[in-house]
Amino acid sequence: MAKVGIIGGAGYTAGELLRLLINHPEAEIVFVHSSSNAGKPVSEIHEGLIGDTDLRFAETFDLSAIDVLFLCQGHGFSRKFWEENEMPANLKIVDLAQDYRDESCGYIYGLPEAKRETIRKAAKVANPGCFATALQLALLPLAAAGKLDSEVHVTAVTGSTGAGVKPGATTHFSWRNDNLSVYKAFGHQHLAEIRQTLSQLQPDFNAEISFVPVRGDFPRGIFAMSYIDTDLSIDEATAIYKNFYADAPFTHVSDRPIDLKQVVNTNKAVISLEKHGRKLLILSAIDNLLKGASGQAVQNFNLICGFPEDMGLRLKPSAF
User: Fold this and answer.
1) Residue 130 a catalytic site member
2) Contact assessment for residue 303 and residue 119, using Cβ atoms and an 8 Å cutoff
3) Strand 68-71 and strand 2-7: pairing?
4) Residue among 91, 90, 131, 92 nearest 111 (CA)
5) Which CATH number is 130-288's, of 1.25.40.20, 3.40.1080.10, 3.30.360.10, 3.30.300.30?
6) Taking a C-beta distance cutoff of 8 angstroms, is the pair 287, 307 a contact?
7) Residue 226 in contact with residue 198, Cβ under 8 Å?
8) Where in the chain is the domain with CATH 3.30.360.10?
């Protein structure tokens, strides 16, 4: 049994994390910290947890009382947190912010499909970004085979929960509903971690990644459409992908066209391939709050604690 604490407990990712950990057979939640909600029942903020927990948000916390800490605050807060708090020597950390995804300060980048064995030995894990997860899972097998040798073109659509719980002009329902918009074209912050991992698998990778992110009019999920020029046949490409993900418990290569509903509310990633002339089209889909955030965080928690990788994560998608 691992005793866990959560910092930044009021956001979407913390809510999903709590939903998973409350039902995890080897996790005991010691505290959920939120200075703005201290004293309130957790289920008052995360209303889907009504009847599942009597936890209340804590104003204070004791890092020495836990085995694993989940950091669920916004980007930039993790470094500030460790400037203000002393890290116990034996504490394990899963950080959901982007602060240490460059693998600085002893953190390991937490994409299990790329670094499973390294993560098992790690004490500090930097959980990947949601877009970064969807895009890397689409490209990892090609990089591992040394076949990423042309420009990578990507368009990916994300749900509104990817923007976080704090309301904004582009997350307001009346604006987002029945609407689409592009943002951060060719300059999204997740490109750095994507290139980092691909280059580790294929050291000579220096092609352009042209990425256009799109805001979708749905709450959760990412559907990514990537393509490259390649001489690989569809059978060769399919074999590369299926061999690469043969031991991955959550990433699946489909022989049929895929859709977003196959992954929403699960920790799955599904991928399908098509060949059009010299272009290989790779479709990938994940739930941005689960495989793209909290589900993957629990996957990393399982790995660093020595539990089965899929423990507490066998979630089923809706039939409709």
Assistant:
1) yes
2) yes
3) parallel
4) 131
5) 3.30.360.10
6) no
7) no
8) 130-288
Q: Please check whether residue 134 is in contact with residue 222, taking contact to mean a CB–CB distance below 8 angstroms.
A: yes
For residue range 105-160, what is the model confidence (pLDDT) as tens digits?
A: 999 999 999 999 999 999 999 999 999 999 999 999 999 999 999 999 999 999 98
Distance CA 282, CA 285 (A): 10
CATH class of 2-128+291-305: alpha beta
Alpha-carbon distance 214 to 180, whole Å? 7
Question: Which listed residue (72, 105, 130, 305) is catalytic?
Answer: 130
Averaged pLDDT score across all residues of the chain? 95
pLDDT > 70: percent of the chain: 96
| Stretch (H or E) spanning 194 | helix 191-201
Q: Does residue 286 sit in helix, strand or coil?
A: strand
Q: Which amino acid is at 39?
A: G
Lowest mean pLDDT among 132-136, 160-164, 186-190, 203-207: 160-164
Q: How confident is the model at residue 166 (pLDDT cuts 50, 70, 90)?
A: low
